[in-house]
Amino acid sequence: MISSSKLSQLLEEVQDIAKEAGAFIRKERQHFSLEKVEHKGLNDLVSYVDKEAEKLIVSRLSKILPEAGFITEEGTAAETVAELTWVIDPLDGTTNFIHGLPVFAVSIALMEKGEVVLGVVYEVNRHECFYARKGGGAFCNDTKIQVSSAKTLSDSLIATGFPYYNFELIDKYMYALKELMQCTHGLRRLGSAAVDLCYVAAGRSEGYFEYNLNSYDVAAGALIVEEAGGTVTDFKKGRDFIFGRQIVSTNGLIHAEFLEKVESILN
Q1: Whole-angstrom Cα distance, residue 15 to residue 144?
Q2: What percentage of the chain's residues is helix, strand, coil (to nearest 5)?
Q3: Rounded to an integer, what distance in angstroms lies between the CA atom of residue 96 and that of residue 105?
Q4: Which residues, in sequence order, are bridge partners of residue 76?
Q5: What confidence tens digit (pLDDT) does each residue in 214-224 have?
Q6: Cβ atoms of 221 and 122 closer than 8 Å
Q7: Tens-digit pLDDT profile for residues 194-244
Q8: Three-state DSSP class for residue 197
Q9: Looking at the whole model, is its pTM more than 0.90?
Q10: How far apart are the C-alpha atoms of 87 and 81, rounded to whole Å?
Protein backbone atom coordinates (compact mmCIF):
# COMPACT_ATOMS: atom_id res chain seq x y z
CA MET A 1 0.00 0.00 0.00
CA ILE A 2 1.32 3.46 -0.88
CA SER A 3 2.11 5.49 2.22
CA SER A 4 0.61 8.92 2.85
CA SER A 5 4.04 10.50 2.49
CA LYS A 6 4.61 8.80 -0.86
CA LEU A 7 1.16 9.90 -2.06
CA SER A 8 1.90 13.48 -1.00
CA GLN A 9 5.13 13.41 -2.98
CA LEU A 10 3.39 11.94 -6.03
CA LEU A 11 0.65 14.55 -5.75
CA GLU A 12 3.19 17.37 -6.02
CA GLU A 13 4.83 15.76 -9.04
CA VAL A 14 1.54 15.03 -10.80
CA GLN A 15 0.44 18.64 -10.41
CA ASP A 16 3.62 19.74 -12.18
CA ILE A 17 3.00 17.21 -14.98
CA ALA A 18 -0.62 18.35 -15.42
CA LYS A 19 0.48 21.98 -15.59
CA GLU A 20 3.17 21.14 -18.14
CA ALA A 21 0.59 19.38 -20.33
CA GLY A 22 -1.77 22.31 -19.81
CA ALA A 23 0.85 24.80 -20.96
CA PHE A 24 1.35 22.77 -24.15
CA ILE A 25 -2.42 22.66 -24.76
CA ARG A 26 -2.79 26.39 -24.15
CA LYS A 27 0.04 27.18 -26.55
CA GLU A 28 -1.36 24.96 -29.31
CA ARG A 29 -4.83 26.52 -28.95
CA GLN A 30 -3.40 29.85 -30.17
CA HIS A 31 -2.96 28.54 -33.73
CA PHE A 32 -5.28 25.54 -33.80
CA SER A 33 -7.65 25.07 -36.76
CA LEU A 34 -10.60 22.79 -37.43
CA GLU A 35 -8.65 21.17 -40.27
CA LYS A 36 -6.59 19.35 -37.64
CA VAL A 37 -9.59 17.53 -36.13
CA GLU A 38 -10.04 13.76 -36.43
CA HIS A 39 -13.21 11.75 -35.81
CA LYS A 40 -13.05 8.64 -33.62
CA GLY A 41 -16.81 8.17 -33.95
CA LEU A 42 -20.04 10.16 -34.16
CA ASN A 43 -19.25 13.54 -32.53
CA ASP A 44 -16.24 11.90 -30.83
CA LEU A 45 -13.46 14.30 -31.74
CA VAL A 46 -9.71 14.21 -31.23
CA SER A 47 -6.66 16.12 -32.45
CA TYR A 48 -2.88 15.89 -32.35
CA VAL A 49 -3.07 18.08 -29.24
CA ASP A 50 -4.86 15.37 -27.23
CA LYS A 51 -2.41 12.75 -28.45
CA GLU A 52 0.76 14.74 -27.84
CA ALA A 53 -0.42 15.87 -24.40
CA GLU A 54 -1.12 12.26 -23.48
CA LYS A 55 2.32 11.15 -24.68
CA LEU A 56 3.90 13.81 -22.50
CA ILE A 57 1.87 12.78 -19.45
CA VAL A 58 2.53 9.05 -19.90
CA SER A 59 6.25 9.65 -20.35
CA ARG A 60 6.50 11.75 -17.19
CA LEU A 61 4.36 9.40 -15.07
CA SER A 62 6.34 6.37 -16.20
CA LYS A 63 9.44 7.95 -14.71
CA ILE A 64 7.98 8.75 -11.29
CA LEU A 65 6.11 5.42 -10.83
CA PRO A 66 7.49 2.87 -13.31
CA GLU A 67 5.56 -0.08 -11.86
CA ALA A 68 2.13 1.44 -12.58
CA GLY A 69 -0.15 0.53 -15.46
CA PHE A 70 -2.27 2.89 -17.56
CA ILE A 71 -5.81 3.57 -18.70
CA THR A 72 -5.68 6.39 -21.25
CA GLU A 73 -8.25 7.97 -23.54
CA GLU A 74 -6.08 8.09 -26.65
CA GLY A 75 -4.32 4.74 -26.23
CA THR A 76 -0.80 6.17 -25.99
CA ALA A 77 0.04 3.45 -23.47
CA ALA A 78 -1.24 -0.12 -23.73
CA GLU A 79 -4.13 -0.50 -21.30
CA THR A 80 -2.88 -2.45 -18.32
CA VAL A 81 -4.79 -2.64 -15.05
CA ALA A 82 -2.14 -3.31 -12.42
CA GLU A 83 -2.15 -2.93 -8.65
CA LEU A 84 -1.32 0.71 -9.38
CA THR A 85 -2.96 2.25 -12.44
CA TRP A 86 -2.87 5.78 -13.83
CA VAL A 87 -6.18 6.92 -15.37
CA ILE A 88 -5.61 9.80 -17.79
CA ASP A 89 -7.67 12.19 -19.86
CA PRO A 90 -5.13 14.53 -21.45
CA LEU A 91 -7.77 16.98 -22.65
CA ASP A 92 -11.21 16.68 -21.09
CA GLY A 93 -13.43 19.00 -23.08
CA THR A 94 -11.94 18.37 -26.52
CA THR A 95 -14.98 19.77 -28.34
CA ASN A 96 -14.70 23.00 -26.32
CA PHE A 97 -10.98 23.18 -27.15
CA ILE A 98 -11.59 22.66 -30.87
CA HIS A 99 -14.17 25.44 -31.01
CA GLY A 100 -12.23 27.83 -28.79
CA LEU A 101 -14.60 27.63 -25.83
CA PRO A 102 -12.33 28.03 -22.80
CA VAL A 103 -13.50 25.18 -20.57
CA PHE A 104 -11.16 22.20 -20.81
CA ALA A 105 -8.81 20.41 -18.45
CA VAL A 106 -6.11 17.83 -17.90
CA SER A 107 -7.28 14.99 -15.64
CA ILE A 108 -4.95 12.46 -13.96
CA ALA A 109 -5.90 9.90 -11.31
CA LEU A 110 -4.03 7.06 -9.63
CA MET A 111 -5.88 3.92 -8.62
CA GLU A 112 -4.55 1.40 -6.11
CA LYS A 113 -6.26 -2.01 -6.21
CA GLY A 114 -9.26 -0.46 -7.92
CA GLU A 115 -9.63 2.53 -5.58
CA VAL A 116 -8.76 6.09 -6.57
CA VAL A 117 -6.14 7.40 -4.15
CA LEU A 118 -4.90 10.51 -5.97
CA GLY A 119 -6.52 12.96 -8.35
CA VAL A 120 -5.42 16.10 -10.18
CA VAL A 121 -7.52 18.23 -12.53
CA TYR A 122 -5.86 21.24 -14.11
CA GLU A 123 -8.28 23.68 -15.73
CA VAL A 124 -6.10 25.08 -18.46
CA ASN A 125 -7.50 28.55 -19.11
CA ARG A 126 -8.18 29.59 -15.52
CA HIS A 127 -4.87 28.16 -14.32
CA GLU A 128 -6.74 26.37 -11.56
CA CYS A 129 -5.22 23.13 -10.28
CA PHE A 130 -7.64 21.02 -8.23
CA TYR A 131 -6.11 18.10 -6.39
CA ALA A 132 -6.59 15.56 -3.62
CA ARG A 133 -5.14 12.41 -2.14
CA LYS A 134 -7.13 9.84 -0.22
CA GLY A 135 -7.69 11.10 3.32
CA GLY A 136 -5.88 14.39 2.74
CA GLY A 137 -8.64 16.84 1.86
CA ALA A 138 -9.17 18.69 -1.43
CA PHE A 139 -7.42 21.82 -2.68
CA CYS A 140 -7.34 24.35 -5.50
CA ASN A 141 -4.07 26.21 -6.03
CA ASP A 142 -2.96 25.46 -2.43
CA THR A 143 -6.25 26.64 -0.90
CA LYS A 144 -8.45 24.04 0.78
CA ILE A 145 -11.87 23.69 -0.82
CA GLN A 146 -15.17 22.28 0.36
CA VAL A 147 -18.62 21.65 -1.01
CA SER A 148 -21.43 24.14 -0.52
CA SER A 149 -23.81 24.18 2.43
CA ALA A 150 -27.06 24.31 0.42
CA LYS A 151 -29.57 21.88 1.93
CA THR A 152 -32.23 21.60 -0.76
CA LEU A 153 -32.53 21.28 -4.53
CA SER A 154 -34.47 24.53 -4.58
CA ASP A 155 -31.31 26.31 -3.40
CA SER A 156 -29.00 24.44 -5.78
CA LEU A 157 -27.27 24.99 -9.10
CA ILE A 158 -26.97 21.76 -11.08
CA ALA A 159 -24.47 20.82 -13.79
CA THR A 160 -24.82 18.06 -16.36
CA GLY A 161 -23.51 16.90 -19.71
CA PHE A 162 -25.45 16.11 -22.85
CA PRO A 163 -25.08 12.75 -24.61
CA TYR A 164 -23.36 13.18 -27.95
CA TYR A 165 -23.51 9.74 -29.52
CA ASN A 166 -25.46 7.34 -27.29
CA PHE A 167 -29.00 8.66 -27.50
CA GLU A 168 -30.71 5.62 -25.99
CA LEU A 169 -31.93 7.58 -22.94
CA ILE A 170 -32.42 10.92 -24.67
CA ASP A 171 -36.18 11.24 -24.03
CA LYS A 172 -35.83 10.35 -20.35
CA TYR A 173 -32.85 12.66 -20.09
CA MET A 174 -34.73 15.62 -21.57
CA TYR A 175 -37.58 14.95 -19.14
CA ALA A 176 -35.06 14.98 -16.28
CA LEU A 177 -33.78 18.37 -17.41
CA LYS A 178 -37.34 19.70 -17.60
CA GLU A 179 -38.04 18.52 -14.05
CA LEU A 180 -34.79 19.94 -12.66
CA MET A 181 -35.29 23.30 -14.37
CA GLN A 182 -38.41 23.77 -12.28
CA CYS A 183 -36.98 22.90 -8.85
CA THR A 184 -33.43 24.33 -8.84
CA HIS A 185 -31.57 27.60 -9.36
CA GLY A 186 -30.84 26.38 -12.87
CA LEU A 187 -28.84 23.99 -15.02
CA ARG A 188 -25.40 24.39 -16.55
CA ARG A 189 -23.60 22.40 -19.27
CA LEU A 190 -19.88 23.26 -19.29
CA GLY A 191 -18.61 20.46 -21.53
CA SER A 192 -16.02 18.89 -19.22
CA ALA A 193 -16.96 16.25 -16.66
CA ALA A 194 -13.68 16.78 -14.81
CA VAL A 195 -14.40 20.50 -14.42
CA ASP A 196 -18.02 19.87 -13.44
CA LEU A 197 -16.91 17.60 -10.61
CA CYS A 198 -14.30 20.05 -9.37
CA TYR A 199 -16.86 22.84 -9.33
CA VAL A 200 -19.07 20.73 -7.07
CA ALA A 201 -16.02 20.18 -4.84
CA ALA A 202 -15.34 23.92 -4.72
CA GLY A 203 -18.96 24.80 -3.88
CA ARG A 204 -19.62 26.51 -7.21
CA SER A 205 -22.49 24.13 -7.93
CA GLU A 206 -24.34 21.73 -5.67
CA GLY A 207 -24.79 18.76 -7.96
CA TYR A 208 -23.76 17.13 -11.21
CA PHE A 209 -25.03 14.10 -13.10
CA GLU A 210 -24.27 12.46 -16.42
CA TYR A 211 -24.33 9.10 -18.14
CA ASN A 212 -22.22 7.40 -20.84
CA LEU A 213 -18.94 8.54 -19.32
CA ASN A 214 -15.58 6.80 -19.16
CA SER A 215 -13.28 6.17 -16.21
CA TYR A 216 -10.79 8.82 -17.34
CA ASP A 217 -13.56 11.45 -17.42
CA VAL A 218 -14.44 11.10 -13.75
CA ALA A 219 -11.77 9.28 -11.72
CA ALA A 220 -9.78 12.30 -10.55
CA GLY A 221 -12.77 14.61 -10.11
CA ALA A 222 -14.76 12.07 -8.10
CA LEU A 223 -12.01 11.76 -5.50
CA ILE A 224 -11.69 15.54 -5.30
CA VAL A 225 -15.43 15.83 -4.58
CA GLU A 226 -15.31 13.22 -1.85
CA GLU A 227 -12.25 14.76 -0.22
CA ALA A 228 -14.05 18.14 -0.28
CA GLY A 229 -16.88 16.60 1.77
CA GLY A 230 -19.25 15.69 -1.05
CA THR A 231 -20.96 12.47 -2.07
CA VAL A 232 -20.52 10.50 -5.30
CA THR A 233 -22.60 7.51 -6.43
CA ASP A 234 -24.00 5.92 -9.55
CA PHE A 235 -27.68 6.38 -10.41
CA LYS A 236 -28.62 3.38 -8.22
CA LYS A 237 -26.95 4.71 -5.05
CA GLY A 238 -23.96 2.40 -5.54
CA ARG A 239 -20.23 2.91 -6.01
CA ASP A 240 -19.97 1.87 -9.66
CA PHE A 241 -19.30 5.36 -11.00
CA ILE A 242 -15.72 4.97 -12.24
CA PHE A 243 -16.41 2.19 -14.74
CA GLY A 244 -20.23 2.10 -14.63
CA ARG A 245 -20.65 4.99 -17.10
CA GLN A 246 -23.02 7.01 -14.89
CA ILE A 247 -22.38 9.40 -12.03
CA VAL A 248 -24.22 11.58 -9.53
CA SER A 249 -22.12 13.99 -7.49
CA THR A 250 -23.40 16.44 -4.88
CA ASN A 251 -22.50 18.38 -1.76
CA GLY A 252 -23.98 15.45 0.17
CA LEU A 253 -26.78 17.49 1.74
CA ILE A 254 -28.98 17.33 -1.36
CA HIS A 255 -27.86 13.88 -2.51
CA ALA A 256 -30.94 11.90 -1.48
CA GLU A 257 -33.34 14.45 -2.95
CA PHE A 258 -31.33 14.84 -6.15
CA LEU A 259 -30.76 11.12 -6.59
CA GLU A 260 -34.46 10.45 -6.19
CA LYS A 261 -35.13 12.71 -9.17
CA VAL A 262 -32.39 11.23 -11.33
CA GLU A 263 -33.02 7.61 -10.34
CA SER A 264 -36.77 7.75 -10.92
CA ILE A 265 -36.37 9.37 -14.32
CA LEU A 266 -33.38 7.61 -15.83
CA ASN A 267 -33.77 4.05 -14.53
Answers
A1: 15
A2: 40, 25, 35
A3: 10
A4: none
A5: 999 999 999 99
A6: no
A7: 999 999 999 999 999 998 899 999 999 999 999 999 999 999 899 999 999
A8: helix
A9: yes
A10: 10
